[in-house]
Amino acid sequence: MRIVVTGREGQVARSLLEAAQLRKGVEVIAVGRPQLDLARPDGVAEALEASRPDLVVSAAAYTAVDQAEDEPEAAFAVNAVGAGKVAEATARLGVPIIHLSTDYVFDGTADRAYVETDPTAPCSVYGASKLAGEQAVAVYNPRHLILRTAWIYSPFGKNFVKTILRLATERDEIAVVADQWGNPTSALDIADAILCAAAMLGGEGSFSAFGTYHLAGTGETNWSGFARCILDTSKALGGPKARVRDIATADYPTRAQRPANSRLASAKFAATFGWRAPDWRKSTDIVARHIFNRS
Ligand SMILES: NC(=O)C1=CN([C@@H]2O[C@H](COP(=O)(O)OP(=O)(O)OC[C@H]3O[C@@H](n4cnc5c(N)ncnc54)[C@H](OP(=O)(O)O)[C@@H]3O)[C@@H](O)[C@H]2O)C=CC1
Ligand SMILES: Cc1cn([C@H]2C[C@H](O)[C@@H](COP(=O)(O)OP(=O)(O)O[C@H]3O[C@@H](C)C(=O)[C@@H](O)[C@H]3O)O2)c(=O)[nH]c1=O
Ligand SMILES: [Mg+2]
Q1: Each residue of 207-218: pLDDT tens digit?
Q2: Quick one: which H or E segment has residue 30?
Q3: Which residues cross the membrane (predicted)?
Q4: Does the interface ipTM go beyond 0.95?
Q5: Is 290 exposed, middle or buried (0-12, 13-18, 19+ CB in 10 A)?
Q6: Closest ligand, as measured to the CA of 124
Q7: What ranges do the domains of the chain cover?
Q8: Which of 100, 228, 230, 294 could form a disulfide with 289 if both were Cys (CB 3.0 to 4.6 A apart)?
Q9: Would you say the CB of residue 259 lies under 6 angstroms from ligand 1?
């Protein structure tokens, strides 16, 4: 099976490329700028056709949450129009699409983990642009899996784990918000889950459970708890050390508003695909070992 993933250097794209190396019968090809530029929709179909996919993983996105508040047109061009173009191209090629979306489609006012049927109400431009992307993907290709995930970290690219490790080399104490709750999710786990789902989509027998799924790490924490776990792990592996101080969201002003509760219930994905993420602490340890070259 030939899987084409959009974006070359993204966390999910790089994790998929790495995961595919360990599997027989799966080839992952990453296509990104300049060949495939989601902000220039005219070339999207051509770039995907040229890579002859059996399945497309739509992972590329405008992911700068605060910056999106200042350039909503750019965020919507990539996350809504661009995602729709990718889906349209897959429909024309007659192949399914696995599209990545986010917990930030919710406003965070629920007092429990969100399920797939909960009403969406994004409180940021990024969240709104990703929601518009979900809707476009669903319109253009009925053979879609929309995977809403959250708080992605990995050995690759920019993410919270790498930011906290960097800050720990610069400071003795790091102040981190303790009133936003969610599920840290390793991109290495997402890649594993995607390959598991892809095998079912492309396997014998007709797959019919297309639709929207939540797919996040097992267990929940807040950003401060996540930072503590990262630094405990770092200390144990001989990496940088720092203390974490709990603060409130109001003490850490940002351009974009973020949901106070963005916990996702991933039971539907587990029931359909027989795959569940490891505990988030276990996955944090694995990613930290990759970063420190200690796996
Ligand atoms: N990061 C997170 O915490 C979360 C992410 N998601 C979603 O999961 C998906 C994967 O996220 P992640 O791997 O972390 O993303 P990254 O931010 O690591 O990577 C984004 C990728 O998108 C590419 N990209 C950005 N703009 C364009 C464009 N105009 N044309 C083509 N490619 C472009 C980037 O390319 P380049 O390398 O050239 O910059 C990069 O490869 C995204 O859809 C995101 O919205 C969902 C929940 C949480
Ligand atoms: C670096 C830092 C962040 N924070 C806070 C800010 C924010 O509320 C939280 C996380 O910071 P980030 O910049 O990683 O947050 P953010 O970029 O909003 O992360 C989001 O990215 C997009 C793409 C998603 O789809 C989401 O699931 C989520 O992962 O921690 C601190 O309190 N102290 C710090 O030192
Ligand atoms: Mg960020």
Answers
A1: 999 999 999 999
A2: strand 27-31
A3: none
A4: yes
A5: middle
A6: 2
A7: 2-159+185-219+264-278
A8: 294
A9: no
